[in-house]
């Protein structure tokens, strides 16, 4: 009989159930669903990672611009009759759960492939985070020479101009 769920083997005359096709369909459905869910989770994690990196870069740019403005203010104060200026600034210690460093560079060190807007004619800040592949550069316009201090950790930073010893601007890390 056709359509009754049984196949008859014409050689032996025995009947076989077609119930195997239901099990195969279930296995294939579960397998395909598992693969689709795994792909969805992987792409979601990749999207989250790229958004975190963009957020960290944006945060570093904002911190760099604020710090550059504060450095320029210290530079203006240093051109008066002032012998020394110390300004302590508060910035976040981390961006996107990553520590970062800030370095004040002279104009010769500010020409870099990662800094297309800098042509080496102005000083800059280089902000580097642990979890971000490339540093962020922010221009700083100052008339005072830049000291050769190394990078300082983000957080509380002291901007120092000491007219008695070299007349240079420097960044110093404040430990708290």
TrEMBL record:
Lineage top rank: taxon: Archaea
Pfam families: DUF7266 (PF23928)
Record keywords: Membrane, Transmembrane, Transmembrane helix
Residue ranges crossing the lipid bilayer per the database entry: 20-41
Keyword Membrane: yes
Protein name: Uncharacterized protein
Source organism: Natronobacterium haloterrestre
Lineage: Archaea, Methanobacteriati, Methanobacteriota, Stenosarchaea group, Halobacteria
């Amino acid at each position: 009989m056709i359509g009754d769920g049984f196949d008859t083997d014409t050689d032996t005359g025995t009947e076989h159930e077609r119930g195997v096709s239901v099990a195969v369909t279930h296995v294939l459905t579960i397998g395909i669903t598992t693969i689709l869910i795994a792909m969805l989770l992987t792409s979601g994690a990749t999207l989250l990672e790229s958004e975190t990196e963009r957020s960290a870069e944006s945060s570093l740019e904002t911190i760099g611009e604020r710090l550059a403005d504060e450095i320029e203010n210290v530079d203006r104060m240093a051109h008066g009759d002032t012998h020394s200026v110390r300004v302590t600034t508060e910035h976040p210690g981390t961006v996107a759960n990553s520590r970062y460093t800030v370095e004040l560079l002279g104009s010769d060190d500010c020409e870099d492939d990662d800094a297309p807007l800098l042509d080496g004619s102005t000083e800059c800040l280089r902000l580097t985070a642990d979890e971000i592949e490339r540093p962020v550069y922010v221009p700083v316009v100052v008339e005072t020479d830049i000291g050769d201090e190394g990078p300082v950790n983000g957080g509380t930073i002291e901007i120092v101009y000491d007219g008695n010893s070299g007349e240079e601007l420097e960044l110093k890390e404040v430990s708290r």
